[in-house]
Queue: 3 jobs
Job 1
Amino acid sequence: MKKARILSFMLLFFIALVGIVYYVYVTRPSDTSKIHISSNPWIGFTPFIYAQEKGWLEKTSFKFIWLVDLDQNSHLFERGFTQGFTATQYELLHFNQREKSKPVFLIDRSYGADAIVSNRSIEELKSSKEVIDIYLEQGTLNDDFLDAFIKEKKLSSLKFHKINASQKNILSLKENKKPIIIISYQPYLSALLKKGYQPIASTRTMESFFVIDALFVDEKTIKGREKEFIQLKKLFSVAVERLRTNPHEYYETIKGYLEGQSYEEFMATTTQIEWLHQKNDPKIIDHLRTKQIKTDGLIP
């Protein structure tokens, strides 16, 4: 019996040791010369995917880590696994260490690619006596989107039950007879619409919700490496131009990241954003400053 306990202890020790080795040597970025940036397959970030798939990033200092859940950006950044991330101004405001980072360049403004969908119309929701389940990624801009939606549509008297869920989990939801609301974005939004959910609000229709996407980076990482970020922005611009001049080739290059979106669906999403990388719009810069977001590091 004693020998068995010793063997069990040794086995547990070995498993723990393997876990520690994995954490140190696999999970944590090993190449400290690289600038690790987390991102997701949002339409505005696909030029980074295109640049990566074309091999353009191989001779640069940048390594992208592709995620699904929005809140993973903050987890990776705050634990030192990444030095930058693509996100909205609202997501940045949810970061515990938001004062450490600032935007290097603006990417896009959402103009319909973020949306709230439901299995009920607005009128049916307003007259509902049931508790309405709301599926969203909590701790992200989805919280702000929901708050603005409830206020703008005057729904505060309704009973809501928030459910924290990733977009992957949301896509696996089965048909529900209860009234539900889902907050989503492209490319996941296309799949929800195919399932029959109807849009009841979006960044195109909302008057009080303004979403800007940018590349945010740790200030210490930017210092002395400005030329590298200028190079990354140039590659981003070339990728956007490829999207405009040869959209089918662009789609074929990145489609593996698009959660099954067809070419037609993908092209529809390109009309749901406004690109911002070519110039720094003074109105947008003023908006970011009202959110106490530093703008002095923006590349012209």
Job 2
Amino acid sequence: MRYNSWDELKKETPFYDGEWDSDKLKEYLIQSCNQNFHLQIDLYFAQFQSDGGLADLLFEFLLNEDYDGSDCQIGAAYYISRLDRSVLKERKTLVLKAQANEVFWRRPFQTDDYLEWI
């Protein structure tokens, strides 16, 4: 779906009334790769860095072969890397699985520094 402005996209907020909408989340992840919305989406996700539910959904997108090569996986990897470390420690198995991917951009962390805190 194409959005002409941030005002248009933010009406499709993926978190509403305490619940994540995975379809809208997928769209935000796709649009996060669009330079026109990247900053606003960064600010949006910054408020959820400690959200375990978001972490689980991001890993679902990243590790799901149905989305292989899609922008939503690029966005998921990026926002996983920005989650609080405590949330990621609770999902150590998922972090290690994502980091083992042979495709570099599908790894949330581009260096092995994560091994020091995981």
Job 3
Amino acid sequence: MMTTSNSWWRRDVFWNQALAMLVSLYVLGLFIPDFPKLENGALYGAVVICLFGGRWKAGLQSLLHPLFLLLLAFLGWLLLTSVISDEPTIALHDYRRAFKDYFLIFLPLMFVLADASGRQLMGRLLAYAGLVIVLLNTAQYVQEWWTDSAALMDIKAHRGWGHPLVLFLPFALMQMRLSERRAFWAWLALALVEGAMIIATGARGAWLAMFAVLAVWAIAGFTRKQFVAVGVSTLALVLVAYFALPAFLLRDRVEQGFDTSLRTTGTWGPAIEMMDERPLLGYGFGKEAFSREFNRRAPERDSWPIKKSKGPHSIYLEAGFAGGYPALVAITLLFGAILFYGYRAIRHIRITDSRLLALAATSSFIGFYITRGALETVRWSPLIILIGIIIHLSSRPAAAR
């Protein structure tokens, strides 16, 4: 199959590169809420290109990968519990919004990954996506400064940018690791700016996610020279941020520590209490289902300090609320399997750029889903991209290249 794939790549270079660009634009578009046409246009453009030339065949074998089968089992259970929920129309609407793209983007993604040129291009494009996020966040700072400087003091105004910055940071580190001289310093500068912007969000979950990513790369990704360069630069960045940023944004929150008392009683606790009421089937998927059940109970629950739903504030509890404890077990198994196959790819691949792509996808998953997903509700859509990369690179034929 790979011989055929390689022949497609040589014969249709333009369309294959366009496919890689569209898949990457789709991921970027997930985090630009004011421009939904980018996400949808890139998705459907990638699907159309994938239908021609037999490109869709490149990913068929991956549909039987154990990780993909675990994903299907998890999604199937959430679908079942949404169908039989009290408000199936609402639950199924949220379910479609969260997961329909999985089945559209997977085969285009797998075709892009089927050739070394496609993997290299996509790795670069995802790193550049981080640069786009940096520019958009910078533009927001400039607009606030220009129109209303008081808006710069709003701690929540830039918090949403922390999600894509955590997701794309490992791909900047990947390009830094693959580069030399000026390119190395340019990618390091981008990674440091991404880190500075993550710190400036004031979101402690984002800070933990960033440090989780850096810890993984320190262990498995950097040479000694790069470790020193990144370590010294990161320390300098943290010290400058600590003393230069407003106290309420960093110093006060550091001194406050990672106190989870409000989450424990106001979001996590209520989510667990509601799960206990329907431990087997849950309530159906989505924010609307959670908010409906939360807001109905909150006035009578004196132990809940929050009286209007802010969501479960955990992707694990979001799954558990939607599908009961079976869904909580399923997502735990799924995430454990992702870590296992990610580690397997990192351990066994001998080609440097493919190994670093596996490391970027795995560390991005650890930062975005394992770490920040435990503390906040994060988007489901990027998960299929990271799973797809890990599925391909953890397969034996891919690992041999």
